[in-house]
Design a protein that fits this description.
By secondary structure, the chain is an alpha+beta fold. The protein has 26 helices and 36 strands. A hairpin with a 2-residue loop joins strand 9 and strand 10. Helix 17 runs antiparallel to helix 20 and helix 20 runs antiparallel to helix 21.
Length: about 1000
C-alpha cells in the first residue's frame, strides 16, 4: 500500500499564488500600452516634386489643400478647357516596368476639380467665383472634399490613396500633409516591461516552490548522468563532421530572406518582413530573430551567422547521447549505440539544419521537452513537467511548427495523468495554475514590443496575401520529397525522412513483443511523439520539405532506436523451447525460455529486408542537389541520381534486393516443405541494420565529400568554403569580393576585323542603356569582330544581349572564326522579353566572332533583337559599392552580401535606394518585394526610378549569372521632406483602420 503523501501548505499556496500572478501578467501583457512614433510630413508645390514613399502605402490620414485661383485654368479664347494636375501622390509619368499604385489625383479642368483616390473617381467639384480653398481630407472612415470648409463630396469607407510622393504641374497654391502608418514600429512601454518582470519573477518563484514540494515527497535524483562531461571519440567525430559542414556546407533557400530581416532590425526598429507583407512584423513567431540580430552585430558574415546552427547541432548531440539514449534502454551502454546515434544525427542535421532557419531551434526544443516529460514520469515530480511546458511554449514562439514541442505531453498523456492524480499533496488548483502559467509565459516572447492590435493586423495581412497552403494539402510536402530533380527531394532529405519513417514503423512492430535492451515505455512514447510531430506540420502554412528539420532531434533518436530494434544480433523476443515427450507433464511456465534472434524469425527478417530495399531505392533515386549558390559547379550527382555504368543505383538496389529477398523466401518455403522447423536466415545475409547504416554512410559521404571536392576544384571562385576561408583571413564580404561589374556595355564593343560595317543596326536595350544591335529577322551576318586578348586567353566571355522572343524555327548564332573562316557556331537563345546576356567562351584557336541570323519566319518588325558582340569592361564590385553602401538586397542573395547595408524602412516609409543587388536574370522570385499585390515594401520607391542593369561577372566562372546589379536612377530631382516626429502611448488594442493591400483589400 502506498503511504499517503505529506502535505505542505506553504509550497502549495506559493505555487497557486505565484502561478496565478504569472498567468494574469501574461494575459495582460499583449493589452499593455506601447510607444508609437507619430510621424507627419508636410509639402507645398513650391518645394517641387518630392519623394515620400510610404510603407504601408496609405497614410493614417491625409489633408490636401488647393487655392481656387491656381485651380482655375482656361484655354484660349473660345477654346476647350486645359486640364493640369494640381496634385498627384504617385508619379505623373512613372516607369512603365514598375507595378502601379493608385494615389490621390486632383485634376483641374476649367472651373472644376476632379478628385480620384485609390483608383476611385470621387467626382468633380465646381469652383465658386472669387477666392476660395478646396480641401481634401481622407482617413479610414471617410474621404471628404470641402470648399471653404463646406462639404462638397463625401465618400464613406476607406478610400485613402497610396502615396509614393507629391507631384504637381503648378508651382504654388497646393499643400499636402499626412501622417504615416507606424502601427508596427512600436517599442515596449514601462508598464509593459513591468508586467514582463512580474511574470518572470512570479514564474521563477513558482518553479522554486514546486521544487520544494517535489523534494518533500520524492527522493533526490541526479540531474545529469555520471561522467556526462567526459569527451568520447564519437564526440570528436560529431564535432569534426559538423565543423567541416559549417565551413563547406550548403546554404538553405531562406538564409537570404532571414538575413535581410535580421540585418534590418536596427534601422527599422522592429522585426519586420522587409520583403513582402507590408513589412508586417513576424510576431508572434519572432524571438529567434532578436538572437540572430544580436549575433550579427559581431559580424554579419556567412561563416559567423551559420555558427549558431552548428552549436545547436552540438547541443542536440549532447542531449541525444548523454540523456536520451540512456533513457531508451540498456542498449545505450553498448559500443555501437553512440556511433549509430552520431550517424543518425548527421543524417538529419547535414541536409536540413545548417543555416539561419528556425528548424535547429525547434529540433533542440522538442527534444528537451521530451526529456523533461520523461524525467517527470521517471522521478514522479511536477517540476520537470512544468519546465517542459515552459520550453514547449518558448519553442512554439519560434515558428508555427514549434507547436510540435507539445507532442511529448500527448505521447505520454497516460503516465502524466497518473502522475498528476498521484500528487494529491499539491491539490488541483495549484497544479492547474502551474500548468497554465508555464506555457502562457511564452507570450512575453511573442509580442515583446508589439501591441495586440499590431500583431492581429500583421496576421490579417499575411493571411490575406497568402503564400501558404491549407492543412489538408499536407500531402504536397511528401510529394515534393519524392519529386525528382529538386532540392526539395534531395537524396539527403529522403534518407533522413524516409528511413526514419521506416524505423518508426519497425520500432512499433518490434515493441509488440518484449525487446532485449529497449525500455518499452520511453521507446513507445518517443516514436508516438515523432509521429504526432509529423502530424503537427499540417499547421505550418508552407509545405516545404525544409520543415522536416524541425524533427531532427526526435528523428535522430527514432532512427537509432529503429536500427537497434532491428539489429539481427540484438533484436530478440522471449521464446519457449518445444517440450519433449518426457517434459510434456511440466507446466509451460516452468520450461526454459530461449532468446530467439531476428534471423530465426524469417518472416520478420525478410519483411524488414524487403522494406529496406524499397525505401533504400527511393532514397537513392534522389539527386544531390542544393539551393542557389550551393549548387554551383555541379556537386556529384546533382544533375542525375547516383549511377553505376550509367545505370541508376536505385534500380540496381531495387533489383538486387528484390531478387535476394525472393531467393530467401523460396529457400525458406523449400526447407519448410521438407519438414524443417526453425528455418533461420543464413548468417551471410546482412541484416536490416547494417544495410541501413551503410546506406546512411554513403549518402552522408556523398553530400559532404562532394562539397569538399567542389571547394578544392574551384577554390579560385565562390564556394561556401572559399567564403569561410576568406572570412577567417579578414575578408568577410562574401560573394561581393569575387564579382566584377560591367558598368558601361558600350565601352566593350569589339572592333571590326574584316568586312564592311554591319548595316541595318538599331539601338538595343541592354538594361537601362542602349548599344548597337540587329533585329533577328531574315538572313544576314554581321561583320567579323576581333576578339579581345582576354577573350582569346579564356579569361572573359563574348557577350551578346538579346531582348524579345524569336519565332519558332528562327535561329541566331554566334560564329567564331580564324580570320574570316568559321570554325564553330553556337546558337543563342532569345526567349525573354527583358534583356538577357548570352555569354560564350571562345574556342582557344578563335580570333574573330560574328553574328549570323537565319530567321525566315520573323516579320519586318521582329520581336527579338540582339546586341553586337562585346567584351565586358569590368570594375570590382567592391569599388562600385564600397563596404557599408546601402542597397536593396533581394532575398535569395542577401545572405551572400554581408558588407552591404540593407536599405532601411524607417517610420512608416521606404528608403529611396540608389542600388539594388538582384537575383540572376532567370530567377523572378524577388519580384514580390516590388509588387503591391504582395505587399512589397519597395513598390512605392520603384515607381520613382528607372532601373539600369549592370551585369556582374564571377571570378573563376565568368559565364555564370551569379547576381544582377541595378542602379536606381531618379528621372528628375526629388525633394526629401523632413518629417516632424513625436512619440505617443497607445493601448494594446488600439487600431486605426487596416493597412490596405492593393488589389486584395476592398476599397471604400
Amino acid at each position: 500500500m502506498t503511504p499517503p503523501l505529506r502535505t505542505s501548505r506553504g509550497p502549495r499556496r506559493a505555487v497557486f499564488v505565484l502561478g496565478l500572478i504569472a498567468v494574469l501578467a501574461a494575459v495582460a501583457f499583449p493589452f499593455a500600452p506601447v510607444h508609437q512614433p507619430d510621424v507627419r510630413y508636410s509639402w507645398t508645390a513650391s518645394d517641387g516634386p518630392a519623394a515620400i514613399p510610404l510603407m504601408p502605402y496609405q497614410p493614417v490620414d491625409l489633408t490636401a489643400t488647393v487655392s481656387c485661383a491656381v485651380a482655375r485654368v482656361g484655354g484660349g479664347p473660345g477654346g476647350p478647357p486645359v486640364s493640369r494636375e494640381l496634385l498627384s501622390t504617385v508619379p505623373l509619368r512613372p516607369d512603365s516596368t514598375a507595378e502601379p499604385l493608385y494615389g490621390l489625383r486632383l485634376t483641374a479642368s476649367g472651373d472644376e476639380v476632379r478628385v480620384m483616390s485609390a483608383g476611385v473617381d470621387l467626382g468633380a467639384v465646381p469652383l465658386p467665383r472669387g477666392a476660395c480653398t478646396l480641401t481634401v481630407h481622407s482617413d479610414p472612415e471617410r474621404t471628404e472634399v470641402l470648399v471653404d470648409g463646406t462639404p462638397a463630396l463625401t465618400r464613406t469607407g476607406d478610400v485613402r490613396p497610396d502615396v509614393a510622393g507629391a507631384f504637381s504641374d503648378v508651382q504654388t497654391g497646393v499643400t499636402l500633409s499626412l501622417r504615416t502608418d507606424t502601427r508596427f514600429q512600436t517599442t515596449i512601454s514601462a508598464i509593459k516591461a513591468a508586467l514582463a518582470v512580474v511574470c518572470v519573477l512570479a514564474l521563477l518563484g513558482m518553479l522554486v516552490a514546486l521544487r520544494r514540494a517535489d523534494r518533500a515527497v520524492t527522493p533526490p535524483v541526479r540531474l545529469l548522468p555520471p561522467r556526462w562531461w567526459r569527451p568520447r571519440p564519437v564526440d570528436a567525430v560529431v564535432v569534426a563532421v559538423l565543423g567541416i559542414w559549417w565551413l563547406v556546407g550548403a546554404i538553405t533557400v531562406d538564409d537570404g530572406y532571414i538575413a535581410g530581416i535580421v540585418r534590418s532590425i536596427g534601422s527599422n526598429g522592429f522585426i519586420g518582413n522587409v520583403y513582402r507583407w507590408l513589412n508586417a512584423p513576424e510576431a508572434p513567431f519572432s524571438w529567434f530573430y532578436d538572437v540572430y540580430y544580436a549575433w550579427s552585430l559581431i559580424s554579419p558574415s556567412t561563416l559567423w551567422m551559420r555558427l549558431p546552427s552548428v552549436l545547436l547541432g552540438l547541443l542536440c548531440w549532447w542531449l541525444l547521447s548523454r540523456l536520451v539514449l540512456p533513457r531508451l534502454g540498456r542498449f545505450a551502454a553498448g559500443r555501437a549505440a553512440p556511433w549509430l546515434a552520431a550517424l543518425a544525427l548527421a543524417t538529419w542535421w547535414v541536409p536540413l539544419n545548417l543555416g539561419l532557419r528556425p528548424e535547429p531551434w525547434v529540433a533542440v526544443g522538442t527534444l528537451a521537452v521530451f526529456l523533461a516529460v520523461e524525467r517527470a514520469v521517471a522521478c514522479r515530480r511536477i517540476t520537470p513537467l512544468v519546465v517542459g511546458l515552459l520550453l514547449a511554449g518558448v519553442t512554439t514562439a519560434v515558428t508555427p511548427a514549434g507547436l510540435m514541442a507539445f507532442t511529448p505531453f500527448l505521447a505520454g498523456a497516460l503516465p502524466v495523468l497518473r502522475l498528476l492524480r498521484a500528487r494529491r499533496d499539491l491539490h488541483v488548483l495549484p497544479v492547474l495554475t502551474a500548468i497554465v502559467a508555464a506555457p502562457a509565459a511564452a507570450v512575453l516572447l511573442m509580442v515583446t514590443d508589439q501591441s495586440l492590435a499590431g500583431m492581429l493586423e500583421a496576421t490579417r495581412v499575411r493571411t490575406l496575401i497568402g503564400g501558404g497552403m491549407p492543412w489538408y494539402q499536407e500531402y504536397e510536402r511528401y510529394s515534393a520529397l519524392l519529386a525528382p530533380g529538386s532540392f526539395e527531394g534531395s537524396i539527403g532529405r529522403r534518407a533522413a525522412v524516409l528511413l526514419t519513417l521506416l524505423a518508426a514503423a519497425g520500432v512499433l512492430w518490434a515493441l509488440r513483443g518484449s525487446r532485449t535492451g529497449i525500455a518499452t515505455g520511453p521507446a513507445r512514447r518517443l516514436v508516438l511523439g515523432f509521429l504526432l510531430s509529423l502530424a503537427t506540420l499540417t499547421v505550418s502554412p508552407t509545405k516545404w520539405t525544409q520543415h522536416f528539420g524541425d524533427l531532427a532531434g526526435y528523428g535522430a533518436a527514432v532512427l537509432v532506436l529503429g536500427m537497434v530494434a532491428w539489429s539481427a544480433a540484438a533484436a530478440r523476443r522471449a521464446s519457449v523451447e518445444r517440450p519433449s515427450a518426457a517434459q510434456a507433464w511440466v507446466p509451460r511456465g516452468l520450461l526454459v525460455q530461449r532468446p530467439v534472434t531476428l534471423r530465426e524469425q524469417p518472416h520478420r527478417m525478410l519483411t524488414a529486408l524487403g522494406a529496406v530495399t524499397v525505401v533504400g531505392a527511393l532514397v537513392l533515386a534522389g539527386y544531390n542537389i542544393w539551393p542557389y549558390a550551393s549548387n554551383w559547379f555541379t556537386p556529384s550527382f546533382s544533375t542525375t541520381p547516383p549511377q553505376l555504368a550509367n545505370i541508376p543505383v536505385a534500380t540496381i538496389a531495387l533489383i538486387a534486393g528484390g531478387v535476394g529477398v525472393g531467393v530467401l523466401i523460396v529457400r525458406s518455403a523449400w526447407l519448410r516443405a521438407g519438414g524443417a522447423t526453425g528455418v533461420a536466415v543464413p548468417r551471410w545475409v546482412p541484416g536490416p541494420t547494417p544495410l541501413v547504416a551503410f546506406l546512411l554512410v554513403v549518402v552522408l559521404a556523398l553530400q559532404v565529400l562532394s562539397f569538399v571536392r567542389v571547394a578544392v576544384a574551384h577554390r579560385d571562385s565562390y564556394t561556401l568554403a572559399s567564403d569561410s576561408l576568406a572570412t577567417l583571413r579578414g575578408e568577410p564580404c562574401g560573394l561581393q569580393r569575387l564579382l566584377s561589374v560591367e558598368t558601361d556595355p558600350v565601352d566593350g564593343l569589339l572592333p571590326i576585323a574584316t568586312g564592311s560595317p554591319t548595316g541595318r543596326t538599331l539601338p538595343v536595350d541592354v538594361g537601362g542603356s542602349t548599344m548597337p544591335g540587329i533585329a533577328v529577322a531574315g538572313r544576314m551576318t554581321t561583320a567579323w569582330f576581333r576578339l579581345d586578348p582576354q577573350q582569346r586567353s579564356g579569361a572573359l566571355p563574348v557577350v551578346v544581349t538579346t531582348s524579345g522572343e524569336t519565332q519558332p524555327g528562327d535561329v541566331l548564332t554566334v560564329e567564331f572564326g580564324v580570320g574570316d573562316r568559321v570554325i564553330e557556331g553556337r546558337p543563342v537563345t532569345a526567349d525573354s522579353l527583358g534583356p538577357t546576356d548570352d555569354r560564350q567562351m571562345a574556342p582557344p584557336e578563335a580570333d574573330t566572332v560574328r553574328l549570323a541570323v537565319n530567321a525566315p519566319n520573323a516579320g519586318p518588325r521582329s520581336p527579338a533583337v540582339a546586341s553586337l558582340p562585346r567584351v565586358p569592361r569590368l570594375t570590382p564590385m567592391t569599388d562600385v559599392l564600397p563596404p557599408g553602401t546601402s542597397a536593396i538586397l533581394d532575398w535569395p542573395i542577401a545572405f551572400l552580401f554581408p558588407c552591404l547595408t540593407p536599405e532601411p524602412l524607417p517610420l512608416g516609409t521606404a528608403g529611396l535606394a540608389q542600388w539594388r543587388v538582384g537575383t540572376p536574370a532567370s530567377d523572378p522570385s524577388a519580384g514580390i518585394t516590388y509588387s503591391a499585390g504582395f505587399g512589397g515594401p519597395f513598390a512605392a520607391p520603384r515607381l520613382l526610378v528607372t532601373e539600369q542593369r549592370m551585369p556582374t561577372y564571377l571570378q573563376g566562372d565568368p559565364t555564370r549569372d551569379a547576381a544582377q546589379l541595378y542602379r536606381w536612377n531618379v528621372e528628375e530631382p526629388l525633394a526629401r521632406p523632413v518629417p516632424v516626429i513625436t512619440d505617443r502611448t497607445v493601448a494594446g488594442w488600439e487600431r486605426n483602420g487596416h493597412a490596405r493591400v492593393p488589389g486584395l483589400d476592398p476599397v471604400g
